[in-house]
Design goal:
Layout lengths: L6 H19 L12 H9 L6 H12 L6 H21 L9 E2 L2 E2 L1 H5 L1 H27 L10 H18 L4 H10 L6 H26 L4 H26 L6 H18 L8 H12 L8
Antiparallel strand pairs: 1-2
Helix pairs in contact: 1-3, 1-4, 2-6, 3-4, 3-9, 4-6, 4-9, 6-7, 7-9, 8-9, 9-10, 10-11, 11-12
The site of geranylgeranyl diphosphate has 16 residues, from helix 4, helix 8, helix 9 and helix 10.
């Protein structure tokens, strides 16, 4: 399977699935039923052309464990994209990075105003945990016709909600953002990587945890996928910085480190067979990118 594996086809199929789910789950309300244009603002950012890398990695983790990509697995994976999208909307606000464009379009606050942009981010963040709760209830209480109730999987999905909260919140992404905004820029690779680990790596790690737990991963499988997610996320951020020429004085060290981390990500998958081919191929792309993140 590895040699003939078509990563672009796999990515495109997973992205299409994620996009279809997001579109179906967040319909535009009829005229007059969207107070403050909240849903319109959520859709504007969420359905803009992002790479869907985090939910796709979550689906890759579920596949690595050998699971079918069932509705609860897909819903859990999509929940990670909601968190990512909220973080982008808030990061773009004037009180943070003050950006005018995101995903090729004017930023949310430019189109809807700051208050609505804040609320759209808040609503995406909370909706994420609503979807995880729905996935857990779905497997425990209301399985699809022909599927058995699976209380153990519901517990795993509850753990997934905890893992996502940890990676997104005060121990992960929000902490990294606070560090980035509140402290002087790092002047060595260790400091830079601490920032990347929190601001970017933590959510990537959570994405892998969510996919793995939703799919019923064993403890060794979960820990291997966590390792993969953290290495991948930090390497991704190094590559993104390198392509933007951020921290030029650390560029050479960061480039070497990104390659090593991508290699570590592949090595973390040693316990898996062919089912982990998509995750291996994604990390190999990062390894070969030689310091430029895949922006396709
Ligand atoms: C506001 C709590 C809070 C956190 C913000 C995500 C973030 C933290 C800041 C955005 C700016 C930035 C450079 C973050 C690093 C992660 C990153 C490269 C985000 C962009 O992710 P992509 O490339 O974007 O996956 P798409 O649009 O493809 O999803």
């Amino acid at each position: 399977m590895t040699e003939s594996f078509d990563l672009q086809a796999w990515l495109s199929a997973r992205r299409d699935e994620v996009n279809a789910l997001l579109e179906a789950r967040l319909p535009l309300p009829p005229p007059g039923e969207d107070p403050g244009r909240l849903t319109e603002a959520m859709r504007y950012s969420l359905l803009a052309p992002g790479k869907r890398l985090r939910p796709v990695l979550a689906l890759g983790a579920a596949q690595a464990v050998g699971a079918a990509l069932t509705d609860p697995v897909r819903l859990a994976a999509a929940a990670v994209e909601l968190i990512h999208c909220y973080s982008l909307i808030h990061d773009d606000l004037p009180c943070m990075d003050d950006d005018d464009y995101r995903r090729g379009k004017p930023t949310s606050h430019k189109v809807f105003g700051e208050a609505t942009a804040v609320l759209a981010g808040d609503a995406l963040l909370t909706l994420s945990f609503e979807w995880l709760a729905e996935a857990a209830v779905g497997v425990a209480v209301l399985p699809h016709p022909g599927e058995e109730r699976n209380p153990a999987r519901a517990v795993a999905l509850t753990r997934a909600a905890g893992a996502l909260a940890r990676g997104a919140g005060m121990w992960g992404m929000v902490r990294g953002q606070a560090r980035d905004l509140g402290e002087p820029p790092p002047d060595d690779l260790d400091g830079l990587e601490q920032l990347h680990r929190e601001k970017t790596g933590a959510l990537f790690k959570s994405a892998l945890e969510v996919g793995a737990l939703a799919a019923g991963a064993s403890p060794p499988q979960l820990s291997a996928l966590e390792q993969y997610g953290e290495c991948f996320g930090i390497a991704f951020q190094h590559a993104d910085d390198l392509s933007d020429n951020d921290h030029p004085q650390l560029a050479e060290a960061a480039r070497a480190r990104a390659r090593l981390l991508a290699q570590n990500a592949v090595e973390a998958l040693g316990i898996f067979g062919d089912d982990a081919t998509p995750l291996r191929a994604l990390a190999q792309v990062l390894m070969l990118a030689n310091g430029s993140a895949d922006r396709s």
